[in-house]
Amino acid sequence: MNKRILLIGGGGHCKSVLDSLLELNEYAEIGIVDKKENLGMSVMGVPVVGCDDDLPALFRDGYRYAVVTIGSIGNPTLRIKLFNMLSEIGYEIPVIIDDSAKVSKHTIIEQGVFVGKQSIVNAGALIQKGAIINSGSIVEHDCQIGAFSHIAPGAVLGGEVVVGEHSHVGSNATVKQQIHIGSNSIIGMGSVVLQNIDSNTMAYGNPCREVKKL
Q1: DSSP of 125-145, one letter per residue?
Q2: Whether residue 48 is found in the same domain as residue 133
Q3: Which end of the chain is more exposed for a tag (fewer CB within 10 A), N or C?
Q4: Could you list the pLDDT tens digit for every one of the 214 residues in the chain?
Q5: Which residues fall within 8 angstroms of residue 88, CB to CB, at 6 or more apart?
Q6: Virtual CA dihedral for 25, 27, 28, 33, nearest 10 degrees?
């Protein structure tokens, strides 16, 4: 095992991903890329080895894998920018699935997806690139989760739910089966979603209703 991986972003979401990586024990070396002022510091014992400007040099030095560990709530622009930067340099962007998660073998999970602790992804689901399936969430059979969307901790999506790209489903929200949530939308925490939600919309409540356009 001589694989080396970088985590891009040293905040709270980094800790979640890092904890999963340390348990998986698939990489010989882990480094964190963060702000210049954090060089030389560490997160959970893992050193900050560079900043964004150092990514090409770190690739030349032998790091071949990298994941974006900056979280997002409704605005994944920075995650997308960093993901594209990593791809252009040549990094492989792996899927990271926590050991405690239950993910059906009959799913499609694209590059850069993180599946957190105690979460469930059931048969027939499609999780597109860069998405976050956070701790304790349930993505039921035949759901589709768009690129760079975030299913927050404890959210429950019934069968055949579709979430567009760049959207956020808040913590402990419940989405009825076969509901469609558009792209670039935010569903507030604890909401109960019983009808389709358009793109570019903030919605919350029980029942969940549109609050404003984004």
Answers
A1: -EE-TT-EE-TT-EE-TT-EE
A2: no
A3: N
A4: 689 999 999 999 999 999 999 999 999 999 999 999 999 999 999 999 999 999 999 999 999 999 999 988 888 999 999 999 999 999 999 999 999 999 999 999 999 999 999 999 999 999 999 999 999 999 999 999 999 999 999 999 999 999 999 999 999 999 999 999 999 999 999 999 999 999 999 999 999 999 999 9
A5: none
A6: -120
Residues 35 and 117 in one domain: no
Domain boundary among the residues 94, 117, 150 is at 94
Q: Cα(95)–Cα(115) distance, rounded to whole angstroms?
A: 8
Phi/psi class of residue 84: alpha, beta or left (left: φ > 0; alpha: ψ in -120 to 50)? alpha
Q: Within this chain, do residues 150 and 50 fall inside the same structural domain, yes or no?
A: no
CATH code of 32's domain: 3.40.50.20
Q: Could you tell me the sign of the dihedral formed by the alpha carbons of 119, 133, 213, 160, in that order? A: negative
Contact 40, 68 (CB under 8 A): no
For the chain, how many structural domains are there in total?
Answer: 2
Does 214 reside within a domain? no
Q: How far apart are CA 206 and CA 156, in angstroms?
A: 14
Please give the order of strands across the beta sheet that includes 126-127: 108-109, 126-127, 144-145, 162-163, 180-181
Owning domain of residue 161: 97-207
Last residue of a domain, one of 45, 78, 94: 94
Distance CA 164, CA 29 (A): 35
